[in-house]
Amino acid sequence: MRIIKKDYRKNFVRAQVESMDDLWYLTYIIEKSDILKASTYRKVKLGKEDERNTKIIRKPVTLAIEVDKIEFSKYSNVLRVSGIIREGPDDIPLGSHHTISLEGGTEFSLQKQALLKYQIEKLEESAEGLNSKIMLVVHDREEAYFAQLKKYGFEMLGQIKGDVQKKADVKTETSDFFAAIKKTVEDYDKRHNFSNIIIASPGFWKEYIQKIITGDLKKKVVYATCSSVGVNGINEVIKRDEVQQVLKLEKFADESRKVEGFLGEIAKKGKAQYGLKEIKEAVDSGAVSELLVTDRLIQKKRQDNTFEQVEYMMKAVENMQGEVHIISSEHEAGSKLDGLGGMGAILRYKINY
Fold first, then answer.
1. How far apart are CA 87 and CA 332, in angstroms?
2. Least enclosed by CB within 10 Å: which of 136, 146, 190, 292?
3. If you average pLDDT over residues 264-284, what whole number do you get?
4. Boundary residue ending a domain (102, 128, 154)
């Protein structure tokens, strides 16, 4: 995201969307009652109501709306923000409803009632962009899966399968398949220009790939071990010690470590709490050091118009010098947190004995 102007003291920012990741960030920054201003299209009638030749056209206009609802799908590449028009041209009635679509290239300004610390961090993080573009490859001698790490999780790029049939031909068929994996990695790298490529496999299969990858591509590759292929293998690789150095700049890996640390405290009945009621009690007592909240919980609460309690806890934790972390539900760690209600608290001290 390109930040054009910012005044965090006055809760204001003007910026331009540069990628789909930016839209994901904005889902945590834009909230109900904010004022969003951007260029958009509005259906208007040409001619009077009683004239037979009345036409409806889509007119480009700049509108400011008071936000009521936001909708984002990572598959549509658009963030739809709906609300009531508070500012616009004379021929657009104030108080009517409108939806502004934010997408790549859209310039907007946002005036908030309050800009929280975690939201400022999201803005700055988005402005910095991805420090590294990482591809994940998990394979054995029969299957290979290719994915790109994203801020909201990971996106599958593709999958190929080998043709291991006759036992006598295993060596030949396997060699051909490893060559196909290498070729696919090269093709994706040419398309995306990855900064790092992590290749993992169960057992020793990755050694066959290691022998045939050379040149500039070799400099980008880190090898790791996994116990399975597919989505489970990708989730496993992200947690491996061998790749933490590569992944340390990626929010996805950081989120996974935070959730695993929280779950570890739960397992040993340590300094952690879950359940909205129990967490609220911990927040009110000032015991919460870090609050983990999944994006799925935030979206659900907003849709149900019950976000106030969650918002209260997030603000209270920050006001007491705690930290709020938004966890993506797109990856395994986020799904685990969703299984515990979508929110977890890491405590300064134990409150249950």
1. 43
2. 190
3. 93
4. 128
User: Taking the CA of residue 50 as centre, how many other CA atoms within 13 Å lie in the half-sphere pointing to its CB?
Assistant: 0
In a domain, 299, yes or no: yes
Domain holding 67, by residue range, is: 2-128
Q: Are residues 144 and 120 in the same domain?
A: no
- Domain count within the chain: 3
Q: Are residues 37 and 141 in the same domain?
A: no
167 and 105 within one domain:
no
Kindly state the tokens that stand for 230.
């597919």
Locate 151 and state its tokens. Answer: 């801020």
Q: What is the pLDDT of residues 13-23, one digit of tens each?
A: 999 998 777 88
E strand spans, the chain: 2-7, 12-16, 35-46, 55-73, 78-87, 97-102, 107-111, 134-139, 143-150, 153-161, 196-201, 221-225, 272-274, 288-294, 323-327, 343-347
**274: which strand partners?**
344
Torsion of CA 58, 63, 69, 74, to 10 degrees: 70
The answer on pLDDT for 74 being more than 80 is: no
CATH number at residue 276: 3.30.1330.30
Q: Is 113 helix (H, G, I), strand (E, B) or coil?
A: coil
Query: If pLDDT is split at 50, 70 and 90, which confidence band does 254 have?
Result: confident
Pairing mode, strands 134-139 and 35-46: unpaired
For residues 265 and 322, state if they share a domain.
Answer: yes
